[in-house]
């Protein structure tokens, strides 16, 4: 039985993903990370392809039928299994660095937009309170003028 397990392990080793079969835009990058981290390229490739799928999200879809509005969007789920110490987590973290960079940049843009929004909201509230104050004063003036004119009418 030990031989069967050894054979299946060797067969699995022979079927490892080779970075050259990936798109030229990510294959060399996956190979580079795999060599630097000293882990199977599968770990890096699975993480990279899943991250790309998440990045694309619902922006791209396939219409399987021409005459209907049926649209299928990508939904990528992935996982990898390995023994402890196979450097799964370091490979995953290295492959996710570009996505983490994009998240950090988006967070900076969001923080700046939030500051702008809060300033605009404060300005709006101030203008609103000034307008309310002006309207209250105008209403008080109208009411007092009516009372004065009514006072004149009653004195006649």
Mean pLDDT equals: 85
Secondary-structure element order, as H and E? Answer: HHHH
Proportion of residues in β-strands: under 5%
N-C termini distance? 120 Å
Number of strand elements: 0
Number of helices: 4
Low-confidence stretches: 1-12
Number of domains: 1
Structural class: mainly alpha
Question: How would you characterize the largest beta sheet?
Answer: none
Shape: elongated
Percent range of helical residues = 55-70%
Radius of gyration: 33 Å
Give a nutshell description of this structure.
With 156 residues, the chain is an all-alpha fold. The protein is 69% helix and 0% strand.
Notable traits:
mainly alpha; 156 residues; disordered N terminus
């Amino acid at each position: 039985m030990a031989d069967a397990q050894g054979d299946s392990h060797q067969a699995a080793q022979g079927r490892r993903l080779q970075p050259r079969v990936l798109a030229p835009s990510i294959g060399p990058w996956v190979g580079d990370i795999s060599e630097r981290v000293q882990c199977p390229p599968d770990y890096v490739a699975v993480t990279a392809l899943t991250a790309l799928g998440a990045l694309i999200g619902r922006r791209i879809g396939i219409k399987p039928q021409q005459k209907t509005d049926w649209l299928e969007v990508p939904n990528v789920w992935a996982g990898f299994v390995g023994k402890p110490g196979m450097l799964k987590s370091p490979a995953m973290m290295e492959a996710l660095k570009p996505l983490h960079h994009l998240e950090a940049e988006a967070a900076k843009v969001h923080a700046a937009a939030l500051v702008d929004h809060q300033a605009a909201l404060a300005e709006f509230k101030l203008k609103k309170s000034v307008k309310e104050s002006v309207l209250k004063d105008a209403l008080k003036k109208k009411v007092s003028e009516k009372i004065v004119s009514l006072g004149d009418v009653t004195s006649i």
